[in-house]
Amino acid sequence: MHLRLTHLAAVLVAFAPMAHADDDDFQTWQQVIASTKLSEGVTGAFEVQPRFTDDSSRLGQLLIRPSIGLTLFDQTVLSVGYAYVRTSPETGANTYEHRPWQQLAFPIAAVKNTFTLSNRTRFEQRFRDDGDDVGLRLRQQIRLTVPLGAAGWQAVGWSEVFFNLNDTDWGAQSGLDRWRNFVGINIPLREGVAFLPGYLNPFVYRSAGYDIDDVLSATLNGS
Prior knowledge:
The protein contains 1 helix and 13 strands; from the N terminus they run αβββββββββββββ. It is mostly beta strands.
């Protein structure tokens, strides 16, 4: 188990960009995801994610994200969804974003009882109340899971990059937008329910440098 966790940590450390951080913040992101089978090969999901910022002292952002997924073949899933995002900065007015998105997820490689490597590609269309332009963003995630014994525990690590495809009048700039790296442990609580605590290290790129945060992440998955 120790060797597997060491390998997982080494992969994520290798992904981390080397640059100067302009600012940092300790945050707590809580996430609840509920999913249910709607029909053969069709799954509905509903996600709520409050994000506590400014040293986890207040609710800085709230995401509500429903979606529908269609299994095409094997474990390849095509999903469509919508995200409502309310952002409350420490100073200034709240912003509200409406974000339709489309996603393709599929396994890349797997060795039974050893590891699973999977891909998730998401395309977002971002509408914000403080501008007229539609922001287009591509998100690419690679996820690794490693079993940690017969009890069903898993080490989980993923890396996700965000690319803006255009500039907008509300501040998005084309190019690399942000980069998130995560490591955690998936703990089954009962059949269909699992808890995934872990550490998330997000980089948000700016025109001059970037912001870096330390995030305590906790996700409850139920189906």
